[in-house]
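README: folding subset

This subset contains proteins for which both the sequence and a predicted structure token string are available. Records are stored as plain text. Below is the entry for Glutamine synthetase (474 residues), shown exactly as it appears on disk.
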Amino acid sequence: MSVQQLLDLIKEKNIEFVDFRFVDLLGRGHHITLPATEVDADTFVNGVAFDGSSITGFRGIEESDMVMMPDPGTAYVDPFTAHATLVIVSNIHTPDGQHYERDPRSIAHKAEEFLQQSGVGTTAFFAPESEFFIFDDVRYESTMNSSSYFVDSEEAAWNTNRKEEGGNLGFKIGVKGGYVPVAPVDSQQDIRSEMVRLMQESGLRVERHHHEVATAGQAEINFRFDTLTTTADNLMKYKYIVHNVARQYGKVATFMPKPLFGDNGSGMHVHTSIFNGSEPLFYEAGAYANLSELALNYIGGILYHAPALIAITNPSTNSFRRLVPGYEAPINLVFSKGNRSAAIRIPIAAVTPKGCRIEFRTPDSTANPYLAFAAMLMAGLDGIKRKIDPRALGYGPFDTNIYELSDDQKKEIRSAPGTLDEALDALEADNDFLIEGGVFTKDFIENYVAVKRAEAKSVAIRIHPHEFGLYFDC
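--- output ---
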């Protein structure tokens, strides 16, 4: 969409406000709203100013002036505002007109440009499966003398004897019993359908939705793959709609990887492939899982760099509450066709040459999608450049249930880092693949690690409620 077409759309739709948005280091959206009467062609030349010192991981107060440069191709009508509002996603520039090197969206653009310059292919496609929970109640606190959290759901396994409903209607979902049951066990069909309806109205092509494995309202909605930056834009839109529809229903949605102890967490399995024009580069008929050597090298790059990559694709302390054995969590750094216990799964059911892809199952939705997809692409391209063969390095294929292997057999398999600090250690030691071609910068990585180290420390130094059960009577 051109600037003029967008200005015409504002008039045609009787838009009252234009909401300019950008994404911070942590993947959170921010916005500044202008009356539509103040938006003209110059807005797309001069941008919209904001204070970068107030954004986590951006700039200090002495160099705080920053500019949002709107991308007219991202425009959609906000489905939640009382006044007609058009949303436009922006890149971030410095006052002198340069792309800001810590802007996640600009990093995503640079990764796409690097692919095109590499000679490998023209386009990388991404499709995330971002799982979430829909709760009826959430409460938490962390003070010097108190620490607690509480979540609740009408359909949760622990509520089979609850009376507050005005008469318990039963049909609660058992632990690990939530995968695709029909109503009335699945009580959230309508809320997910409303999310899908608004996603479609906002330009997303939604393929399906369903209840996920865990009790207490775990859900998944899948939208169509697209190019790297566009998919990251779409995921931000997806999360915005999920959060706000849940709020409209008097509920709350969270993409937190592990809000419940003892049941499945929420991942963000990411499907990806590379094309050269219209030619799919990951397909070779008759090979293992119909994968080309280029695809295997791409897998090799991701698995080789996985400990460092996970600092970006799983960037929260809570991520590592999910990445533990026994919950379909893909902690094993191997690949396999159809095997969900491997970090990389190769879908083989109903796959065409153009649909041939890999699925990296380790990531979760605390990741900033622009950074996560860019880092995945850079790791895979490094594998192609260096012809990393995952088979030669012992990364598979593993077509058995890895969790059922003997302890001696498991020792031969590399595991994902066990903590955020371990992943950050790996990122500090292994980041040359990210800074190739200036996609990421040393400054960005040092700043990113510093922000995430502070998060990890803030959790590590606090008293955990479970410690009272373990040690209070010592």
